[in-house]
Specification:
The protein is 46% helix and 4% strand. The chain has a two-stranded antiparallel ribbon with strand order 1-2. It has 186 residues and is mainly alpha-helical. The radius of gyration is 17 Å and the shape is globular.
Length: 186
């Protein structure tokens, strides 16, 4: 993916640290990051192990897969992205829910809707999901998460989508989004 432009050792070390932290928080492997980002697994491994720098294209793809502005991956002391940086299509930010629980919604949402959470298709899903699904989940107060016995869990009724998505609606969403964005399908 082009020539490495992030070749300064201190910046490469920061990028590696931030990627490791994101992978740990999301409970993703390097292979999973490669699959979601489109960056080869070998390149992800080389970046994490500080063997090679990377280009802006790869950095942007990694940031998009992690739902983090790519330039933040180069910032020392990244910490974990703030709550409003995570945007699940068709939902509003989950106020009052600890930010780390939002990341538990990602796989549940993908399974319920059959579409990847992030990508160029997200704005289309943002518009379609509320249009197609008339019923918002009242069991979780439209948060996609429930606090059960003091533990935050993905809502078992809407599976993190905030919407009651029927199998027919899921099939229609997948077909509609898949025609324009085939890579969005899971």
């Amino acid at each position: 993916m082009g020539s490495p432009i992030i070749s300064v050792p201190a910046v490469r070390a920061t990028l590696a640290t931030n990627l490791k932290m994101c992978l740990e928080r999301l409970d993703w492997s390097q292979s999973e990051l490669a699959r979601r980002s489109g960056v080869s697994q070998k390149q992800v491994n080389n970046i994490v192990r500080q063997r090679n720098g990377c280009g802006v294209e790869a950095l942007a793809m990694l940031g998009q897969a992690l739902n983090v502005h790519y330039w933040r991956l180069l910032m020392p002391n990244l910490g974990w992205p703030v709550e409003d940086e995570l945007k699940i299509p068709g939902t509003r930010p989950s106020r009052g829910v600890p930010h780390f629980t939002n990341y538990r919604r990602l796989p549940a949402y993908e399974q319920a809707v059959g579409l990847r959470v992030m990508g160029r298709h997200a704005s289309l899903v943002d518009w379609l999901l509320p249009t197609v699904c008339a019923d918002r989940c009242t069991d979780c107060d439209e948060l996609g998460m429930q606090c059960v016995d003091g533990q935050w869990r993905v809502c078992s009724h809407c599976r993190g989508t905030v919407w009651r998505v029927t199998p027919q609606q899921r099939d229609w969403l997948r077909a509609t989004v898949g025609r324009r964005f085939p890579n969005a399908l899971i």
